[in-house]
Amino acid sequence: MTTYTGKCHCGEVEFTAKIPEANHVLCHCDTCKTLSGSAFTLNTIIPQDDLKITKGSLKTYTYYGDSGKGVHCNYCPNCTSHIYHHQEVMGPKIVVRTILLNDGKSFKPGAEVYGKDRLGWEPEVATTFQVMPPA
User: Fold this and answer.
1) Weakly modelled stretches of the chain, pLDDT under 70
2) What pTM did the predictor assign?
């Protein structure tokens, strides 16, 4: 387990995250596309207690995912970088944006989720789950 530091785009929010493997989980869901303005987002799933906000505070909004349960998006109130999401269906685990980590550019793809929504021109770069991996 390694502790990484990260920050939002403007630097108003800083955080640490304990991550077991230096890998990205690429999410191709339509919500991530809308939130990021990109073809996918780069993430990892960790226990909520393994994320610490060390500077600033976050704003939260909620939408409802495929499960019908809430997804709480936590982001910088200034630049709107999404630091993490908490999907109620995942219990005490959260989805952290790994590209916001200072070492995030060195991470390799570890898995892909919502492969069913991958854009037709995107190649598969890691083990892909059509929706989410089995619990």
Assistant:
1) 135
2) 0.92
